[in-house]
Each structure stands twice: as structure tokens, then as C-alpha cells.
Amino acid sequence: MRLTFVLDSRFYLRDDGVYAQDQFPQSYWQRFLDVFDTVTVVARRGTLPPGARVDRFNLSSREGVDFRLLDNLSSLKGQALGRRRIRRQMAEAIAQGDAVVVRLPSENGLLAIRVARELGRPCAIMLTGCPWDGLWNHGRFAGKLYAPIMAWRVRRAARRARFVWYVTQHFLQRRYPSPGAVTASISNVEIAAPEPDVLARRLRRIAESRSPVVFGLIGSLKTQVKGVHIALAAFSQVKDRLPPFEFRVLGGGDAAPWRKMADELGLGGQVVLEGSLPSGAPVMNWLDGIDIYLQPSLKEGLPRALIEAMSRGCPAIASRCAGIPELLDENMLCEPGDAQGLARLLLRYGDDTEWKRAQAERNWNAAKDYAMDELTSRRKAFLGALRDAAARSGAET
Predict the structure, then answer these.
(1) What distance in Å separates the CA atoms of residue 395 and residue 294, rounded to the nearest whole number?
(2) What is the pLDDT of residues 213-249, one digit of tens each?
């Protein structure tokens, strides 16, 4: 059985393979190869930014996975000039497979749903985030104009779907219901079961009360949706009342505007923009070097980085956005976009050793619900139902 997986993310083709920034390491595709024989990834073709270090990207290509990289459909130019060509390429990829999974919200995904329906291929939606939140908070006026349209399109797609995979327990299900579909709640996160020695090291670090206090955030610098600007604004409000601190950001994108913002807010010497790291051990080691994790997002599904931080025993403060309240206690949350609210939480907890100890233990235990073994059986059952539908569809033609 052959699966076609469609998404909007950028991949980068080089002589030695296909790379992705921040996500989609080789191991990601195993969740599909456990059920299907091959995977064809249909995504956007990226151009490496000047000075980009590929050794800090994820090698994504592997045996059993091939890539069809298309031009950008998520722009007015792409819609006007390239849609017919991209539709033809999409149809070719879907026709060669037996079933389709589309990652929404995405323009490629919405196009693939229509093509799959025309070709009679069973199609599952993987709903990873809220398009309203993402576009409304993207930072551009055009995004705000398009937010209600995209949200309606995704809501309609979910309502008509035969299979829907939600990454949250409740949030996305309420906003984008699919009453007639086979549904599953499966986080898109895949972590190893949290190890006791990780928590022991975290508790020792807290007991040592190191200076400066290191705050960390993982998120792309390409847009504002991870709330980096909210964190900078919050730190600027309380920088003189916090103990000595450092704010580290791990993620790809142009760092120059963010460095300028930090300088203008008087935080230049306290903000470190570290670029990307490959998934897995390098990111986990990075998390082990921070004291408090921040996730002041304006748009999410269920944030992988926050769950990874929890699995390393990181105390965490975040926005009350999408599925985040499913992960953290209410007292650890502020409203999305509320820099003053985040500043109050930084002041309240930034130098509180007892809070750090309690939250380290609480988060480490909560992350067990997202361990690989716990999620694999649910994922296999869902994808198995899609595979069985494809087998029946093939037998009928």
C-alpha cells in the first residue's frame, strides 16, 4: 500500500538528500511506514537562506520515502500563476498512491482533498492547528482578511471528511468538528518515555540555583505566531525586577529583525538567538540547559516543543492558546498576546525555587502521556482504518 502525504512545509533538495528545518527528521516517517509500504511526500520547494547551515537542519529523506516538491501555492502569485500546474503535479502524485493524508491547515492540503475525491482515493485529514489563530495573529493585514475564509474552508473539509486525526484532546475538535468521520486524538509529538535520571538532573540544577536564570523558547523566527515578540516585550517590562537572566530562542528564520527589537527594548545583552538544531538529542540537550521554558504562542495545535520541554522536567509558562491548557496548570497561563500578563508570571515564578521543583516533577510526569509507546497504538489503528478503506476501494475498481 502506498501513501501520499501532503503538506505546506518547505523542504530543501540537495545532492545528498532532502532536508527540513526544525521538523520532519527521518524518524518522523516511520509512523506511516509502520502501516504503509511507501510514502510520497508532496510539499513546498524551499530555497536555502543565505548562510544557512545544513548541518543544523534535519535530513528527512530515507528509504521508502520520496518527495515531490512543488512551487508555493500559499501566495497570490502562486494561486494566480501556478495553480493549474501544481494541481496537475498533485494529481499525478495522488494517482500513483492508494491513500492520502493531508496536513491542515494548508493550501496544498485543501487542493489534495479535492483531487483525492475526484480520483476516488480515501483521504484522511491531520488537523495540526487552527487556521483562524494562525492567520489572524500572523502579523499582516492580508492574513486577518483571509482568516475567516481559511477557517471556513478547513471547517467544511473536516465536516465532510471520512477520517480526521486531531492533535488535541478537545480544542480543535470543538472548532472543527467532524461528526460523520472516523476520528482520533493523537498528538503529533513523538518523544521517548521520560527517564528518571532526566528528572533527577533537573532537580539538582534547580537546587543549585544557578545565575543567570535561563529562559528558553523554541519556535520559528519567520512569523510572530510563537510569540517571541510578546516574550521580548514582557522581559522589557520587568528586566530590572528579575534576577540576572538570559533569554534563548531556538528556531530558524532571519534573526536580524529580532536582534534589532531586542536592542531597542534594552535587552540586547540578554537575548541569544541560536538558530536551528536537528531534532532529537541536540534539542533535548539544549532544553537541559534552560531553567524555565516559555510558550507565549498566538497560534498552536498541541505544541511539540512544550511537550519536549516538559519531558526534560522544565518548568513552563505559556499562553492560553489552542491545546496548551491541556498540558499546563491554569496558573501557568496568560492570554495570547498579553505581554503584561506574561510579565506578571515571569516576576511571580522567575526566582521561585519551590515552584520550579514542583513544576519540574509535575511536567515530567504529565509528559508520559505523550510517550512514543502510548501514541503508536492509536496511530496504527487510525492509519490501519485508512489503509483498509484503500484496500476496499481498490477491490471495487
Answers:
(1) 51
(2) 999 999 999 889 899 999 999 999 999 999 999 999 9
Query: What would the grid cell of residue 249 be?
Result: 530562542
Is it the case that residue 252 has pLDDT exceeding 80? yes
Tens digits of per-residue pLDDT, 170-213? 999 999 999 989 999 998 877 888 899 999 999 999 999 888 99
Q: Within 13 Å of residue 287, how many CA atoms lie on the same side as its CB?
A: 28
Q: How many CB atoms neighbour CB 242 within 10 A?
A: 17
Residues with Cβ within 8 Å of 38's Cβ and at least 6 positions away in sequence, in order, are 2, 3, 64, 65, 66
Is there a single domain that holds both residue 265 and residue 185?
no
Which structural domain, as residue segments, surrounds residue 113? Answer: 2-190+372-396
Q: How far apart are CA 72 and CA 79, in angstroms?
A: 8
Reported confidence tier of residue 74, pLDDT bands at 50, 70, 90:
low
Residues 237 and 360 occupy one common structural domain: yes
Where do we find the cell 471547517?
155
Which among 286, 338, 284, 327 is positioned nearest to 303, based on CA atoms?
A: 327
Q: What is the pTM of this model?
A: 0.81
Q: For residues 127 and 111, state if they share a domain.
A: yes
* Owner of C-alpha cell 545565575: 211
Cell of 71: 512551487
Asked whether residue 72 falls in the same domain as residue 206, the answer is no
Position of cell 531597542?
264
What is the chain's percent helix, strand, coil content, to nearest 5? 45, 20, 35
CATH number of the domain where residue 390 is located: 3.40.50.2000
